[in-house]
Amino acid sequence: MSVEATLQKLGITLPQPAAPVANYIGFNQVGSLLVVSGQIPFKDGKVAFTGKVGQGVTLEQGQEAARLCFINLVAQVKAAVGDLDRVKRVVRLGGFIAAGPDFTQHAVVMNGASDLAVAVFGEAGRHARTTIGVPSLPADAAVEVEGMFEIG
Tell me: the pLDDT tens digits for 18-48? Predict the structure, then answer.
């Protein structure tokens, strides 16, 4: 099944990729490696989840924010390479979770992105990962996810 068909089966419609808001580009390809800049949980043109996970943003909302971030990563990949079936592997995801100093479930939040990567790309969606807690993110987003993809 194609990646586009899988997205459709999952009920996911890719949004228009977010434009950079500063002096950077949304993605950069070097050889077969596509690096996608961090994506926040934009939905319908606004940040869907703001604040800190564990302080006003529930664990489940954090997971949904991470999932939205991954959807926005995939939108950037499509803009970069056109055909999502060219993705050979999700190489790495990096997650940044806005949370207070006592929050320790960052990995659980990031599973929202990781689980969707595997659902969309199958075994090629299994990836290396880093998850980091931070005091704040741009636009008060609760989560930001960056990614690296192997393109064929």
Answer: 999 899 999 999 999 999 999 999 999 999 9
* CATH number of the domain to which 84 belongs: 3.30.1330.40
- Return the DSSP state at 147: E
Amino acid at 63: Q
CA–CA dist 22, 48 (Å, integer): 20
Count of structural domains, the chain:
1
Residue 130: both structure tokens together: 């880093």
Contact 103, 63 (CB under 8 A): no
pTM across the whole model: 0.97
Tens-place pLDDT, residues 114-148 = 999 999 999 999 999 999 999 999 999 999 999 99
Q: Domain range holding 74?
A: 3-15+23-151
Interior angle at CA 37, CA 35 and CA 42, nearest 5: 135
Per this entry, what is the length of the chain? 152
